[in-house]
Amino acid sequence: MENIEIARRLEELADLLEIQGANPFRIRAYRNAIRTVSGLTRPLSEVAAEDALTDLPGIGKDIGGYIGELLDTGKLSILDEVTAEVPRELATLTRLDGVGPKKARKLWKELDVTTPDELEAAAKEGRVAALSGFGQKSVEKILRAIEDFRKHQGRFLRAEAVQYLRPLLVHVEGVEAIRRLEVAGSYRRGKETVGDIDLLALVEGDDDRAGVMEAFTTFPGVDRIEMSGETRGSVVLTSGLPVDLRILGPESYGAALHYFTGSKEHNVEIRKRAQKRGLRVSEYGVFEEEGKGGDDGDANSDPHAGRRIAGATEEEVFGALDLPFIPPVLRENRGEIQAADQGALPKLVEADQLRGDLHMHTTWSDGRDSVRAMAEACRDRGYAYMAITDHSQAVTVARGLTPERLREQWVEIDEARDQVEGIQILRGCEVDILKDGSLDLPDDVLAELDIVLVAVHSHFDLDQATQTERILTALRHPLVDILVHPTGRLINRREPYALDMEAVLQAALEHDVAVELNTNPRRLDLHDRHLFRARELGVPVVISTDAHRTAQLAYVDEGIHQARRGWLEAGDVLNTRDRDGMQAWLKRREG
DNA sequence: GCCGTTTTCGGCCCGACTGTTTTCAGTCG
Questions:
Q1: I need a surface site. Which of A103, A130, A216, A388 has the fewest CB within 10 A?
Q2: Which residues 463-482 of chain A have a CB under 7 Å from nucleic chain B?
Q3: Domain holding A540: CATH number?
């Protein structure tokens, strides 16, 4: 069983125990363990085999036992016991905005409501408003939440969100009082998708805060205002994108930027670290706690109590905790705090370190631009080399190339080599991995290519063992260079095919095959967790755009976040090598 | 339920905002 599946079961358990009213600290312990599991790059089965589950942070005897049970049997008996008492659908109910464990429990106990559909019916019949603790506003909010839940389950692509956001930024920036306006949150962490947008406005003094909030909530693209206070406001744009605004003074801006950049998990760890040093971290700054334990408790409820020792910049906040600046893309609690503590943060790869793009299409298959146009565009980007990699014959919808047409294309590639100077044009192909794992072109043709990419474009629904074996078979082929878009996912549209990625990465290592980070914003495949694992194992990664027109070569600029989120350094990325270095790798199996 | 360079017992991250309350619980990020 995969880590992510184990995390999901434990999460369901925690959700249901919370609804059941279990000790909140016990729930927290479960959530801590879930954080550890979902942040882990090694397979838990491997850790279990070493008998080292309880060495993991937040995992003790009990939870370690649950993980062991899941690994051994695929079942979790305690979850079965809990679901015998609490209906598992109730966990879904807490996904609704404004409905937490307490309200879910009340709706279930008093109205026998367990699903969004039942909740909607009860709300419309006036039964919800009649409950104590619920009023007319709660009912309206719940009905809206159900509507949102139905129409908008997926998150926004990062690239998509920025388009909706830009006009709002222009509008709010127009307010004179604003000294700085920045986007924090998962957007700043470079996540592939964002659920909402967090804006931070720096305002001097208290005078114009109301004006800033006013400008924010009256932006014409605002569909509705969720809340609007003195320092915090929350709206939903007509596009459905939720946006939060926080207003801060200069002494707190860095602390707030850190705090609202997150991730939540990273912040929790940071605060624990602070606590050990007798410090308190909040969005207002880093404070020295004074008179610990001696007070009446009121001192702790004042967010500005104690002496502020940092807050104006993020560097200051990290510095107060004896840490160097941690780049936002790393703040996922995947070991970045420990690495920072030990001076071992990775030197993350930058877009301008890439020396070539090794995956693109032309008019020969389903691309829009010619070989020459693509070559000129790559040269203009300053690349030293590039590969033309149209589809092979099996992908008929994309006009995939037969061996004959491929040879015809080589004539055109030769012409482009003469016409476009200053860049090396590799002749390649995105060769289909057929259902049985064999390749879509004969070996003698593959041998004449400079570079061979392999990919799955069919039979997505094979079971995991079969799909994995299919790809392993392809990786064993001695002429294969790169496995491209390895999981096949399309964000918000198609799930990855069932695949044992650990086995695939191990095989890539063994057979000296690279794996791709495809920077098409809908793919971003491999994703960060697997990139991290590839780096850990030493499997080379190629960052390519899969461009189907010249403009899409720019996908690399958005996609590079993903590589950085996977902790990749230049040395982990094959196409940071210069022309000779790349040539040497392509010839790695000769001599 | 987990954890320990002050602790094997007694803690466990922090604050804003809303709605339904007569002083605060619930939810969210």
A1: A130
A2: none
A3: 3.20.20.140
**Which residue among A341, A359, A378 closes a domain?**
A341
Which of strand B's nucleotides are less than 7 A from any protein C-beta? 1-3, 6, 11-21, 25-29
User: What's the CATH code of the domain at A271?
Assistant: 3.30.210.10
How many Å does it take to go from CA A200 to C1' B29?
A: 14
User: In the structure, how far is the CA atom of residue A60 from the C1' atom of nucleotide B2, in angstroms?
Assistant: 6
- pLDDT at site A290: 60
Which nucleotide is closest, CA of A282 to its C1'?
B14
Length of chain A: 591
A373 found inside a domain: yes
Nucleotide nearest to A36 (CA to C1'): B2
Residue appearing with tokens 């419309």 = A124
Domains identified in chain A, total number: 4
Using the structure block, give the residue that is written with the tokens 């030493």: A538
CA nearest to nucleotide B29 C1': residue: A264
Q: Domain limits at A414?
A: 351-586
In angstroms, the CA of A299 and the C1' of B13 are apart by 16
The answer as to whether A95 is a domain residue is yes
First to last CA, chain A: 41
The pLDDT of residue A206: 62
Residue A30 approaches strand B within 7 Å at CB: yes
Could you tell me the two tokens for A321?
């905790």
Distance, Å, A278 CA → B11 C1' = 15
Burial of residue A462 (CB within 10 Å: 0-12, 13-18, 19+) is middle
Query: Mean pLDDT per segment of 10 residues, for chain A of length 591 residues?
Result: 84 90 88 83 88 90 93 91 90 84 90 89 88 85 82 73 87 88 93 90 80 90 86 86 91 92 89 87 84 38 72 93 94 90 94 96 91 96 96 87 93 96 96 93 94 92 90 95 93 81 96 96 90 96 94 90 96 97 93 63
Q: What is the pLDDT of residue A304?
A: 65
**Residue whose CA is minimally distant from B14 C1':** A282
Nucleic strand B within 7 A of Cβ A97: yes
Kindly state the DSSP code that residue A74 receives in the 8-state scheme: S
SS3 (DSSP) at A405: helix
Predicted TM-score (pTM) of this structure:
0.81
